[in-house]
Design brief:
With about 280 residues, the chain is mostly helical. The chain has two domains: about 1-15 and about 50-165, no CATH class; about 170-265, Alpha Horseshoe (Leucine-rich Repeat Variant). It has 16 helices and no strands. The radius of gyration is 19 Å and the shape is elongated.
Length: about 280
């Protein structure tokens, strides 16, 4: 069960945007202090509570009677522990229960100035990518116009996974304007947000950033190209292996490994606690 909870952490390959005036940055990796993964004492208290590990195992076990799982998901949806809320939402989506979209709406409306709530909302939106039998498209199309850039990107990412790539193209075109800024910090943040899309549609734009005169921008671009999982990025990343800056060359090598060995990358993500549903569609192979 602790492994299952750990699977709700963010990949260390997720890019961390710099602090902006409009929304909090999200972590490159999620530490114990960033995410409310229960401590040993909390786990002990939780296991003695009305919803213990036996029930949690039933919640995630597809062989258990769906009515039992549905009842438990409804009980857990209001848990004070966000990772458990996500597990409940995932179960509701699997069982095609309309409360899943309601719970995600509530989670998004509760997003505050802390990066934790924004992180959890993003993860919840990611769960909608593979949802069947629910009217999730209506919610996702609403969210692509959300005031939070992170929420907008997450919604476009799920819609792209559901075969509508137009919202993602619009997001990428809008973000690409930041690459024309004279401030290297702005360009770096732009590349980080483009990397957050994890979209093959961002390859051309990121390839331009890979030739930026700022080495940090080039490094972020190499990381972001690897996150797309797109074969189209291999040529540019191969060229970047000869970059004069070691950090750029290292990022390019890691990006190539992500693309050429997606299953290996998935296994590494499992080792650090990342569930496959939080990887881009091209990486879920």
């Amino acid at each position: 069960m602790e492994k299952r909870l750990a699977q709700l952490e963010l990949s260390d390959r997720e890019l961390q945007p710099q602090q902006s005036s409009t929304e909090p940055s999200l972590p490159t990796t999620v530490s114990q202090s960033d995410l409310p993964v229960p401590s040993a004492s909390n786990v002990q208290r939780f296991s003695r509570g009305p919803f213990g590990f036996a029930q949690m195992n039933q919640l995630t076990d597809p062989s258990v009677d769906p009515e039992i799982r549905l009842k438990q998901a409804h009980e857990l949806i209001n848990s004070p522990m966000p990772p458990m809320q996500l597990m409940a939402i995932e179960t509701l989506i699997e069982l095609q229960d309309e409360q899943a979209t309601s719970a995600i709406r509530d989670m998004i409306s509760a997003v505050g100035d802390d990066r934790r709530s924004l992180f959890m909302a993003e993860r919840a939106i990611d769960l909608l990518a593979d949802a069947d039998g629910l009217d999730v498209d209506t919610l996702l199309y609403e969210l692509v116009d959300h005031e939070s850039e992170v929420i907008t990107i997450a919604a476009a990412r799920s819609l792209e996974a559901r075969t509508d790539d137009n919202p993602m193209k619009n997001v990428i075109d809008k973000l690409a304007l930041g690459l024309e800024d004279a401030d290297g910090g702005v360009r770096s943040r732009t590349v980080q947000q483009l990397g957050r899309t994890r979209s093959p549609a961002a390859v051309d734009t990121l390839s331009i950033a890979l030739n930026d005169n700022n080495s940090e921008v080039r490094m972020r671009a190499a990381q972001a190209l690897g996150n797309t999982g797109a074969d189209a990025a291999i040529e540019q990343l191969t060229i970047a292996l000869d970059d004069p800056v070691a950090e750029v060359r290292s990022a390019a090598a890691r990006g190539l490994d992500q693309i050429r060995n997606p299953q290996s990358a998935n296994n590494r993500n499992y080792a650090i606690g990342v569930a496959p549903q939080f990887l881009s569609p091209t990486k879920r192979r």
